[in-house]
Design brief:
The chain contains 6 helices and 12 strands. Strand 7 and strand 8 form a beta hairpin.
């Protein structure tokens, strides 16, 4: 297992090229929280700007113009409520979506944060599904995205009219996959996609092409390829696909974190203790 580090500029991130990345300022006095939430946000195609000093948050927000401000409720020297008040009183930032995260269960503080217009209050450790729902409400995905999506840098087998070929994938969601190919012989109906889960097992899903992105189109920085929607799968297939996407997003974080930053939940792909 490779260690987790925040993303670097060592090379292009093609998995995020399909849409321009939204950004989020994350304010927390825990370096571990900032480290892992940065990794998770990056995998969700969100650029994270971590801030450990709450006094820097407002000025950075004015300069960076983020799409989201994520605040810990209890910070050293200044709490999240005070920062939220400053944001709402600032003409430039008044409409900025704000998420509060906290291990503090003080309902009075929670109601105060909600009265100041925060989108949601997430308990620590963070629940992935609850976070994803909150990010949807902040419109960080450029539209309604119901399903979890993760980078997926693996080859998958595409079977069409008994013809099989292996294609490189870029992203996978709970209901579809994006693969690199401009092969027009791959038609939109009666596709099968074989997705490796591990060395011994794979998912065999039915699907159809819902759009193609060709080279030299308007999106010059976007990879050529096609999006396939899974529309023929069993409930067990759907469960395993959700487990795969969840594992891609947080599996290594769960293993590596020494304090609970992300709620592990359960998965059929993870060893049960």
């Amino acid at each position: 297992m490779q260690p987790i580090f925040p993303p670097t500029e060592s090379g292009p991130d093609h998995s995020s090229a399909i849409l321009k990345r939204p950004s989020a300022i994350v304010v927390d006095d825990s370096r571990s929280f900032l480290k892992y939430i940065t990794v998770l946000f990056n995998r969700l195609n969100i650029e994270s700007l971590p801030v450990i000093n709450p006094l820097e948050a407002i000025e950075l927000a004015r300069v960076a113009c983020p799409n989201l401000l994520c605040l810990d409720l209890m910070l050293s020297g200044q709490n999240g409520i005070e920062i939220l008040r400053q944001v709402r009183a600032d003409d430039e930032l008044a409409d900025l979506p704000v998420l509060i995260v906290s291990g503090n269960q003080d309902k009075t503080l929670h109601w105060e944060a909600l009265s100041l217009g925060c989108v949601d209050i997430l308990d620590k450790p963070i629940d992935l599904r609850r976070l994803h729902t909150a990010l949807q409400r902040c419109n960080l995905f450029g539209g309604k995205r119901r399903y979890l999506r993760a980078p997926f840098d693996r080859q998958v087998e595409i079977i069409c009219n008994e013809h099989s070929q292996f294609l490189q994938s870029l992203t996978i969601s709970e209901r579809g996959i994006f693969v690199c190919s401009t092969d027009l012989t791959v038609r939109s109906s009666l596709l099968r996609v074989r997705i490796p889960l591990n060395d011994e097992e794979c998912l065999d899903l039915g699907g159809r092409i819902i759009y193609r992105m060709m080279e030299n189109e308007n999106y010059a920085s976007s990879p050529a390829g096609m999006a396939i929607k899974f529309d023929r799968m069993t409930s067990r297939d759907a469960e395993l696909l959700t487990a795969l996407v969840t594992d891609l997003l947080i599996g290594d974080i769960i293993v590596e974190q020494t304090e609970k930053i992300i709620n592990p939940g359960t998965s059929p792909l993870w060893p049960q203790k």
